[in-house]
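My current task is to audit a protein record that another person submitted. I need someone to confirm that the token line plausibly describes how this chain folds. Take the sequence as given and treat only the tokens as open to question. This is what I was given:
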Amino acid sequence: KGGGGVAGGGRAGDFDDVLMQLKGGIEGNIDAEEFQAHYERGGAFKEMGLLDEAIDELQKALRAPENRLRTSEALGVAFFEKGQFAIAEAILRRAVESLGATDDEQIGLIYWLGRSAEALGKNAAAVPCYQRILAVDIGFQDVGARMAKLAAEGA
């Protein structure tokens, strides 16, 4: 009689259980110095569409002295996906300007910085980002198409 509802509720309950285990594991088992675990959990939350939880974990991971490029990029992308383009732009710009990497090493950061600028209507700021990418990798993602679109719009 009520079996169908229990099974449907069970699936939702399973998801809730997994989420609670992830959160519980974070709070109970991860030392503040275990930045890699924060990064991995941030990625897992992001894949599940739990952007606030992903952002929280990635911010913790960003405190590590190593892997700041990939963590900054993941954090910027999470804010971008959340529609908070100004915050994404600020995070990505700070990383590009302060981490001292080559354009090849930080191509993803530069790409998402351009995407964030474009999403904010700052096309003139997006163009130099895309130009830097094209100078390193002419086939990177959709940069060629984005440049053509911005050129057609007069940016």
